[in-house]
Amino acid sequence: MSAKLTVDGIEYPLNTEKTLLENLESQAVKVEFHCRDGHCGACRCLLISGQPEYISYPMAYLRDGDVLTCCCTAKDDIKLATYR
Fold it and tell me: 3-state class of 71 per DSSP?
């Protein structure tokens, strides 16, 4: 069984070797981003379920339930909602 990334109710295959942002870009999902290293917070999404694994600790302020897609990966299914 391969892992899935679900964003706003739409499922995509999840490459566990790439960041969540890279996964979204590879599926042509339009997402906001600027710095790509966890400083600005532009790529912030709401974590619905799953467990993100941060590559580096994000410097941007995170509210409970937030995840920065630019600096984390996931090894198993993960569900996100965008802040649009």
Answer: helix
Entry pTM: 0.92
| DSSP states along 13-68 | E--TTS-HHHHHHHTT-----SSSSSSS-TTEEEEEES-EEESS---S---TTEEE
Number of domains observed in the structure of the chain: 1
Task: Please give the residue range of the domain that contains residue 53.
Answer: 4-82
CATH number for the domain that contains residue 29: 3.10.20.30
Q: Retrieve residue 62's tokens.
A: 């995170």
Coil, strand or helix at 3: coil
HSE, side-chain direction, 13 A CA sphere, residue 27: 18
pLDDT in tens, 17-70: 999 999 999 999 888 899 998 999 999 999 999 999 999 889 998 999 999 999
